[in-house]
Amino acid sequence: MASKKVLIVYAHQSGASFNAAAKEAAVEALSAQGCSVEVSDLYAIKFRAAATAEDVGEVKNPEHFRYAEETKLAWEEGKLSADIAEEQRKLQEAELVIFQFPMYWFSFPAILKGWVDRVLTLGFAYSPEKRFSEGVFKDKRALLSFTTGSQQSMFSSSGINGDMNVTLWPMQNGILHYCGFRVLAPQIFWAPSDASAEARAAMLESWRQRLAGVLGEAPLTFTPLECFDVKAGFQLKPDVQEKHAGREFGLTAGVHLGKPLPPHSQMKAGV
Questions:
Q1: Distance between CA 33 and CA 234 in Å, rounded?
Q2: Phi/psi at 49 (5° precision)
Q3: Which DSSP string corresponds to 77-118?
Q4: To the nearest whole number, what is the mean pLDDT of the chain?
Q5: What are the DSSP calls for 180-221, one per residue?
Q6: Is residue 185 within 8 Å of 178, Cβ to Cβ?
Q7: What is the per-residue pLDDT across 65-92, written as a single tens digit (0 to 9) for each?
């Protein structure tokens, strides 16, 4: 049986960081299971974050440069820049993609957002016909593994940073699910810089234990594309709205019908 292929997209400047330790724990735990693990160390390879005309070689419409359309044409012609093509190769081969990073300003670090902008190109990663539950990567799994600077209590529905489920929605739904990934529950390391050495070691051990079964985990729940009416501007179909009218919570953190958000829907599978 062929080994499972895993890609870790890693975004931290320091090899002495907790993120580096989490990345190494993943490499070791998954390799021990027989997985083939490849790491894209974005700072080490000096990955360029800015999406520019340099990514496509010959620009088809220099009077009005449109990145999505130009990269689609370049991808079809095999003319994307070498760094993008290499990352797309890694992604194409992977069955599980783990993004390991420190949360910056409630989102990805710029270098990782640049990877998203430049690698997940139109045609390769999504199209009008292939997105969300019918997306290009619907046979792949993806997982966000990240550190925070704030305590867990601060990312609650009553905390100053707000509900982490809301923070995660643009990344997990708007990027990963949009491209079709089956999104696994995030691995969140809450404020490791404030934790004791023993607590940090316990965080890493918990991560290793999770990785032992990660390939068999159920994904988070998102509303399927078929529940939306294309002709009505991708609104929930009336029968779906009627079905959920009497329920206490909305469907997801983003599609909530004006109801309370379903608790932990972006952090735990099966809710």
A1: 42
A2: -85, -30
A3: TT-S-HHHHHHHHHHHH-SEEEEEEE-BTTB--HHHHHHHHH
A4: 96
A5: T-EEPPPEEE--GGGS-HHHHHHHHHHHHHHHTTGGGPPPPP
A6: no
A7: 999 999 999 999 999 999 999 999 999 9
Give the length of the chain. 271
Per-residue pLDDT, 89: 98
**Whole-number Cα distances in Å, 105 to 17, 109, 158:** 18, 8, 19
- Of 93, 132, 106, nearest in space to 7 by CA: 93
Tokens, residue 157: 């529905």
Nearest 10 degrees: Cα torsion 202, 207, 211, 216? 110
Q: Determine which helix (DSSP H) or strand (DSSP E) holds 31, and give its type and residue range.
A: helix 18-32
> Would you say the pTM of this structure is higher than 0.85?
yes
Token reading at 28 = 């070791």
